[in-house]
Amino acid sequence: MTMNRQGRPSVPQQTTAAGHETFTGNRALTIEEPLIFETGRLDVTGVDLYAQEETPARLGGLRRRTAPHLPGLTEPEAVRHYVRLSQKNYAIDTGLYPLGSCTMKHNPRLNEKMARLPGFGDIHPLQPVSTVQGALELIHLVAEGLKVLTGMPAVAMSPKAGAHGELCGMMAIKAALRARGDARSVVLVPESAHGTNPATAALLGYRVESIPARADGTVDPEAVKAKLAPDVAAIMLTNPNTCGLFERDIIEIAEAVHAAGAFFYCDGANFNAILGRVRPGDLGVDAMHINLHKTFSTPHGGGGPGAGPVVLSEALAAFAPLPWVVSGPEGFDLVENADKAGGAHPFGRMTAFHGQMGMFVRAAAWMLSHGADGMRQAAEDAVLAANYIRASLSDLMSLPFGDRPCMHEVLFDDEFLDGTGVTTLDFAKAMIDEGYHPMTMYFPLVVHGAMLIEPTESESKASLDLFIATLRDLAMAARRGETDRFAGAPRFAPRRRLDETRAARQPVLRWSAPAPVGPEPARDAAE
């Protein structure tokens, strides 16, 4: 069967299990959804607009001169199109999401209900402070909770994502160094860190030097000490690290970094593994961002920016960015100007306004509904779930750092696939046919053919058992030499496997109508 430019069959009919073809190409509720450009027309619109009188141009030479390249659809057509697309997506509401290092946990519907309360959902950041006292109190509540949970004296609430929080923490470090007249130029980043860490340091003008991982997947304090020099500004260390392991020498590393006059930035993306068990401030951390979408169950974005608050040590508290919430006898206020910062030295602003209100509400609802003991149990259950998967698969799938306990995620490599003709990518694609989103693949880079699985605390034992049984079946099939099951996977997804290398190197970013297909033109009789 030939394929069109979008990788779909050029003939709509599909053979069903009964052996006959459907006229539409659909399989019951599995709809063969055409592209939106194929459904609509570029020369019509789905709505009627009154002709507008000519108005003075305010955009200068930026005014559009041609019609937008958008298809005209009726409202039912547009709704059906996007609903059908959503049904082709995998989501935490449809099944276990095993992505490692992303913490795709269930977002309780209670949180969503709270975020839609008019007093939170309908306010505007430019309202007078006196009219948003409840919102400021909630932000203050979350901020105080984060300080208690981390053992840190200050927190910046305005960063809108994990990487944005990294930038905030490192900018505070740079401001503190500048304040003492110390122009350091190097940031140390372990190989097991998140990829955004070196990018953040480089963005701020620092030269990044890598710290290798030792054989057990953790950072050797002696390797850090060997790199420490008068030009080192900070170390950016992830704990628990991206291999799913707790950095057991973190206190020794922090002490060495501080003795060298540098700062300790901790990537807090995996704080959900130690929540209520360990306070980063007690480990010597100077700055740490917290992904509310990971640890405190807010969605990844939620239809807008996420939230990545940054907790700061006493050495960095004075350099926190504006604005921040303060509480006084007359209620809550928002400090937005340096001259009202009470002796602090904020490095500036991260965003125009104060964070993302919807994410703060969801995080507050999760914190209050769980309480201190519930949040601690969430971390313990996440670690338990990951270790349950590790123990259940260790006889079939290979563990790069030995069969030792992990934290909230378990890391496998591709050694168990040696000689089978099956790759990590093949294994992951076969998971799609079984109804699972693949785990994180080929990351962290310190492990060849990495498969990083994070089940989270929100999965039941029944769902974990089915997931484990599925991976065991796939692993045994690979060892039995059933390469056909993997090479062509996925077979049952709406689209088959793409040429991902070609798609990355030669992306087609604009749809164009295929050339019309018709009868060949008649040849001249004189030919």
Distance between the termini: 34 Å
Globally, the shape reads globular
Determine the number of helices (DSSP H or I, runs of at least 4 residues). 15
- Total discrete domains: 3
Briefly note the structural class of the backbone: alpha/beta
| Order of secondary-structure elements | EEHHHHHEHEHEHEHEEHEEEHEHEEHHH
Number of DSSP E strands:
14
Low-confidence blocks of residues: 1-12
CATH class of the largest domain: Alpha Beta
Give, in spatial order, the strands making up the sheet with the most strands.
3-9-8-7-6-4-5
CATH superfamily of the largest domain: Type I PLP-dependent aspartate aminotransferase-like (Major domain)
Radius of gyration of CA atoms, rounded to a whole number? 27 Å
Let me know the average pLDDT.
90
Strand content: 5-15%
Give the proportion of residues in helices. 25-40%
Largest sheet: 7 strands, mixed
* CATH fold name of the largest domain: Aspartate Aminotransferase, domain 2
Q: What would CATH call the architecture of the largest domain? A: 3-Layer(aba) Sandwich
State the gist of this model:
This protein is of the alpha/beta class. Helices cover 32% and strands 10% of the residues.
Describe the structure.
One of its GO terms (cellular component) is cytosol. Its EC number is 1.4.4.2. This protein is α/β, with parallel strands linked by helices. It has three domains: 11-45 and 76-87, no CATH class; 110-366, Aspartate Aminotransferase, domain 2; 371-503, Alpha-Beta Complex (Aspartate Aminotransferase, domain 1). Helix content is 32%, strand content 10%. The chain contains 15 helices and 14 strands. The chain has a seven-stranded mixed sheet, sandwiched between helices. The protein has a three-stranded antiparallel sheet with strand order 12-14-13, covered by helices on one side. Strands 1-2 form a two-stranded antiparallel ribbon. Strand 10 (324-328) and strand 11 form a beta hairpin. Helix 11 packs across helix 13. The longest helix is centred in the last third of the chain and has 37 residues, at 357-393. It is globular. The two termini are 34 Å apart. Mean pLDDT is 90; it is low at 1-12.
